[in-house]
Amino acid sequence: MEKQVDVEVNALQTPVQTNRSSERRSNVKSGLKKVYQDVFWAFTTVSDGVQDWTPFFLVLSYFVFSTTIYMNATSGINEVFWFIYLMTNTYIATATVIESITALGNFQDSKRALDKVAKKNWVFPTADNNLPRLDIIVVAYLPNEQDIVMDRLKYLLEEIVYPRDRYRVNLLYNTPYAIEPLESDLFALADEYAKNMRVVKVPGSKSKADNINYYCNVIQTDAQISAIFDCDHYPHPYAPKWAMEQFCKDKEIDIVQGRCVVLNANDNFLTSMIGVEFDKIYAVSHPGRSAMFHFGLFCGSNGYWRTSLLRELKMDDSMLTEDIDSALRAFGHGAKAVHDINVTSFELAPVTMSAFWKQRLRWSQGWIQASMRHVHLVWSRSREGKHRTMRQRFGIFSLLFVREISYYLITQYLCLVLSVVITEFPKNGHDLYKLVFFQYPIAWWLFIFSLLAFVGTLWVTFHFRSEFCRWYTIPIFAATYLPQLVLTAVIGLFGHARQVSKYIKWNPTPRN
């Protein structure tokens, strides 16, 4: 009888004990899971911190080490280095002023073409029914551009002057989370303009390259030309027609790169300087280099591609500046790219130093990636059936090697001057003269020549400036050019340091 009672008690207690055991196991699992999450969070935080700060310490070490070397070097050795830096700077200044002079011819040709079309009441040489079919590709990272995307799309649909039976706007966007009601509104807009618009949420996309590659691999189109735009761009209403004239005039042209103008140049000091910089780059440097070295570059936005070439080359999503990589691959492929300043588009510059810094660091790291991958174009054989001239090879050498090495030459000169200031601080005008020129007459000639080249480049830029660039920003740009040059060089070093430390974060530029 007692045994039977014990069995019954044990039978009653077993489920309770089982539940308690299960609860203990569950608590242990939860505890272990929380510990794992805490450890993973700590590891990720430390790893991110190391990745963020490694480039800074690499650049800091570079400056400290270089300055220390010059402080302990003899005067003769320092003079040798000084001459190397000054001669290289003279070469860069010479190349820049030659680019400016050659850009004058491009500017005059573009102005004559503009005046001719304007006199004919904006009737272009090529009839509308002979224009190529055109796809406008707008790439957008929606969380960053949700405030501007609808406005840009409506502008493209309503303001661009192009035959509607030959024109389609394609929005290819990605977003890590749903953004409503915006996404529904975008698809509703596509339904409203069904014949001229396509909206695609690219599955699994994490980059601009993924969005463009989806267009190349998946989307069916009869467009002969595909134009790529970032979401913040306003193309001039006649810009597509200007680009099409280039394709119709020369059947060998594969890419037409237009001029990008900073729309918000008057927002603050930073945007005004970026505005001058963009006028100098897109209206002077790019067309000038194209005329001087006989090759052009796709610059990421406001670029028109033959669709067949774009679909063949696509974009490499492993590159931070997939646009420059694709431009250099196109060059290696034997494609012909030209610059046309009448193909104008307006974009937004970063309005804060933080946004500017992140954007330029990404560009800098992307450029060193592309330079390392494609510098072989200087010496490698041309593609079968194509010919890469010595002039083009020298232009690529200057673009990919000299430009990258100039960051070190500028900062090394800065370290050299800093070392002299530390060890022999100039106490009078004579000492300052010796510090700057080392008392060599040739230094004056090199300095004067570089200064004249710089003034000449800015004079050309002044005459090519956009309507958003006020005249007085040019002398301000000139007065602040030296610190801007040093900042550019430091950003270049950070880009190299990021590449060495395998920095992989992507920081999108805020748009509003």
Layout: helices, strands, pairs:
Blueprint (H helix, E strand, L loop, with lengths): L1 H71 L2 H45 L14 E8 H4 L3 H10 L8 E8 L7 H11 L4 E5 L6 H10 L7 E6 L3 E2 L3 H11 L3 E10 L6 H25 L9 E4 H7 L8 H12 L2 E12 L5 H22 L15 H34 L5 H9 L3 H24 L8 H7 L1 H20 L12
Parallel strand pairs: 1-2, 1-4, 2-3, 6-8
Antiparallel strand pairs: 4-7, 5-8, 6-7
Descriptive notes:
The chain crosses the membrane at residues 53-73, 396-422, 442-462, 474-497. Residues 246-454 form the Glycosyltransferase 2-like domain. It comes from Talaromyces stipitatus (strain ATCC 10500 / CBS 375.48 / QM 6759 / NRRL 1006). This is Glycosyltransferase 2-like domain-containing protein. Keywords: Glycosyltransferase, Membrane, Transferase, Transmembrane, Transmembrane helix. There is one protein chain. The chain is of the alpha/beta class. It has 2 domains: 59-90 and 397-500, no CATH class; 126-396, Alpha-Beta Complex (Spore Coat Polysaccharide Biosynthesis Protein SpsA, Chain A), CATH 3.90.550. 63% of the residues lie in helices and 11% in strands. The chain is built from 16 helices and 8 strands. Strands 3-2-1-4-7-6-8-5 form an 8-stranded mixed β-sheet. The protein is globular, with a radius of gyration of 29 Å. The model has no long low-confidence stretch (mean pLDDT 87).
